[in-house]
Amino acid sequence: MAATAPEKVTWSVNDIPGGNAEVGVIDVNGLYRAPLKAPVPHEIHICAEAEGAANRRLWGTVLMGNPDPAYKMVGSWAESAGTGGRLKKPHGISIDGGGNLLIADQGANRIFRYSKTGKFLSEIGRGQGAEAGQFTEPRYAAVDDSGNIFVTDVKSDRPRMQVFDTSGKLLRIFAEKGFAPGQIMRGHGLAFDRKQRLFVTDVDNMRVCIFERSGKFQSCWGKDGPSLGDFNAPHGLFIDGSDDVFVNGYYGPTQKFTPDGDFLLAFGFGDPPEGAVYFHSITGDRWGNVYATVRTKAGYSGALESQAGKKVSIAKYNNNGDFICNLSLSVKEHTESWAAVDRDGNVYALFTGAGQAGVEVFAQQ
Question: How many CB atoms lie within 10 A of CB 289?
């Protein structure tokens, strides 16, 4: 289709309009001039924003200096997992409007709220059960711009989505179990676009469903298949500042779509037996970068493997799917993980294993 150049583009470098001497400057025509000295960290984010465009923001990634971008663990906390602690089998992690961590625990059947340093603050949900306000293996919690908490539940015969206010009071429940449009079998990834529409990945129905935050169904897209644009067990979901939608398949790849489901690109493919095998979730930051939790099978030997042979890392890609770097979790023998990224770009990686469950915090160096 024919396109015209936008009349006005606002340029920024690391969210600084026009940039500065430390991170580089960019003029009104989009000509970027790098700084004389590589900044620390030396991953620089350039953003072009055009009001009225379908994809309102475009990002460019500049890497300066040597060696390649790297993250360092700057903090961690853990509890005894299972019968010895509050956390039983944590599954998903997100950040609420107050900057605290929300952990969906499918073993405890609750949403736990912690500070970033691991202080327990509160819990949401009334434990396991079939009534509204109770859970049966909740997977993930997402927060809208009003602070309300949306939780996807995957078991029992009740509707799959439950909504709570910031204090944990149940507000509503929606999305009946099933295969028809607007119904969900196994919701996993959740995210809101700029219009505060809720996007949900449905693992079993192989699609993305879109709801108003009131719970009213709008539409769904996606289908099971082997081609690019099709799904094979879609799990994680991230929406960037242009409302483009990233969805990862459990076996790869991660795919980028328009909000209407038009396929744009794919990256992060599986590479068994020695490379990436499973991609459990994805998240993103305010610069459009995508973080995928990846599990490999070290020492893979056909159908036999030990828990100790599993390794989880977080692969970081830019908005166009170019690989940037890996973040390796230090805890051994842990299973699939989930991560969340705060406004400063710090990564909070959820882990379970070796009798413990908790969070490792990474900052770029």
Answer: 22
